[in-house]
What we know:
With 138 residues, the protein is an alpha+beta fold. Helices cover 39% and strands 27% of the residues.
Amino acid sequence: MLIGSAVHNLDAKGRIVIPSKYRDDLGSTIFAFKAMDGCIRIYPRDEFMRVLEKLRAGDVNQIMLRRKISGSAEQLSIDAQGRILLPELLRNKAGISDKVRMVGMIDWIELWNDDGYDEAENLSYEDEVRSMAELGLA
């Protein structure tokens, strides 16, 4: 299960360490793409294959989404030091240049420009209570 968060620095070559708490669930081959909300989503292989199957099953109304996800997706490998090389195009699209916030999202992790995450996390009390109630958690 991919939960929790961590902040790490991008090195000069564009690599970032994936925390050990995520590595076992991610596996050695992962898939990354630029999400609509400004982050980079990283999926384990099996979970990404499920995303692709859903995209394949979509109709013409989802063609732009299919293009966006499959067109920006990259297959990445976690090296022996637990690092991945984030492609420059993905880093630029997500505004990531130094500090990276990693957030576990149960089935995937998100990589955020640390400042961008602070904005994205901003959920009002009312919205949080409503969402919790809709899920039966309040």
